[in-house]
Description:
By secondary structure, this protein is α/β, with parallel strands linked by helices.
Amino acid sequence: MAVELTDANFEEVIKTDKPVLVDFWAEWCGPCRMVGPIVEELSKDYEGRAIVGKVNVDHNPGISSKYGIRNIPTILFFKNGEVVDKSVGAVPKNVLSQKIDGQL
């Protein structure tokens, strides 16, 4: 299951040597509802090899603002605490998998 990330725990979670995928989403966002199940599948597919998390932008405006999230869904890819890739909008699972694989 994807890790629920918040303004409080975000920095701690992304500071790892494993790749980190972070889905910025909101309950009212239609495309987010399309991407959500894909993110959950990826969390199972990459268990132990990568961290997959979700940030509800309505509940965590601090972290959303810090990373300039203006459109959702936005998925950021982190390596060693730094953003290394980005995907905006609803994208297929294979695109996200390729981005994670590129960080492994």
